[in-house]
């Protein structure tokens, strides 16, 4: 059970929970009424961080005249060009919102534009694996540095993350990071994994790194749970046959999808029953808000300083 002071934090945090956007892949939405108008955000920019929900809305499909040509690569990434029509693009404003989405606990929702004033088709939720720079012309035809984000559909990473297989450690990780019980070290590794990284040129390498970063977050939240569901507090229903550890599932409290990298203060380790209840139960939103508050109480001691 949580201490009394943490129970107070649970109640306060639950009361301030934000609405999580819910869209259907392939469905067309009116941007002004159903996306940025409803959840807050710019009605014109291609990158629109929400003011009212933990989300960043990205719009693709137009703007080639301004140097915005998005496309998919052979690894399934959407190569999404950052914002900035003149001069070198900078990692600020909307571009920084994409790069920092995991640290900020936001979901990246991508929409295909079909023309000015026309509905936008929802392509799904994406994770930002990395970014790189390329040389291209700006609106006036002058060559400049362009930021390109590699966005991977979250559905491509979900199965790997929930699979009952041992995680593969990053080659750069120390042995201490993998030792059970060393919660502080595990958290430091998870926090480091969530920070916006530098540019990565090799697309194949960025896929490998993305899985390893996500594994660090998963490893920490499972250790933090200490074998008990972080929502109902019941013991894990069984142990994994792969390594004998308690079976709990990572759940992203600010997003509908559970794949992709996220900050540990936005991920809970919960039992399969609570996980299904949140996603499919009629009381799911309320229980998700309760989990958000419980995780906030657990992470509160790390707030400030370098705890992030």
UniProtKB/TrEMBL annotation:
User: What segment(s) does the record annotate as region Disordered?
Assistant: 160-183
For this protein, the record's Gene3D superfamilies field holds: 1.10.30.50
Q: Where is the composition biased (Basic and acidic residues)?
A: 160-175
| HNH nuclease domain location | 216-276
Under the heading Pfam families, the entry gives: SRA_ScoMcrA
InterPro entries xref list: HNH_nuc, SRA_ScoMcrA
Superkingdom of the source species: Bacteria
Tell me what this protein is called: HNH nuclease domain-containing protein
In which organism is this protein found? Ralstonia holmesii
């Amino acid at each position: 059970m949580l201490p009394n002071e943490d129970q107070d934090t649970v109640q306060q945090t639950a009361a301030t929970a934000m609405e999580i956007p819910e869209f259907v892949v392939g469905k067309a939405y009116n941007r002004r009424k159903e996306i940025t108008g409803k959840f807050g955000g710019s009605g014109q920019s291609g990158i629109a961080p929400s003011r009212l929900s933990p989300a960043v809305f990205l719009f693709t499909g137009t703007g080639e005249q301004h140097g915005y040509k998005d496309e998919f690569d052979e690894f399934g990434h959407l190569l999404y060009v950052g914002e900035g029509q003149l001069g070198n693009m900078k990692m600020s404003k909307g571009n920084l919102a994409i790069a920092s989405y995991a640290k900020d606990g936001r979901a990246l929702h991508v929409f295909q534009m079909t023309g000015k004033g026309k509905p936008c088709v929802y392509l799904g939720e994406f994770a930002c694996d990395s970014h790189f720079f390329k040389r291209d012309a700006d609106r006036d035809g002058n060559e400049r540095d362009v930021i390109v984000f590699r966005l991977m559909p979250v559905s491509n990473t979900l199965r790997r993350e929930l699979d009952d297989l041992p995680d593969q450690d990053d080659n750069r990780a120390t042995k201490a990071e993998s030792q059970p019980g060393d919660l502080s070290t595990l958290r430091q590794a998870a926090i480091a994994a969530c920070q916006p990284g530098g540019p990565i040129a090799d697309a194949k390498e960025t896929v490998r790194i993305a899985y390893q970063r996500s594994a660090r977050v998963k490893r920490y939240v499972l250790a933090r749970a200490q074998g008990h569901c972080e929502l109902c507090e019941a013991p894990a229903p069984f142990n994994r046959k792969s390594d004998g550890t308690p079976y709990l599932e990572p759940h992203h409290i600010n997003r509908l999808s559970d794949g992709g990298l996220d900050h540990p203060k936005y991920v809970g380790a919960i039992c399969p029953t609570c996980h299904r209840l949140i996603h499919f139960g009629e009381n799911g939103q309320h229980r998700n808000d309760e989990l958000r508050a419980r995780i906030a109480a657990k992470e509160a001691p790390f707030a400030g300083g370098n705890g992030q």
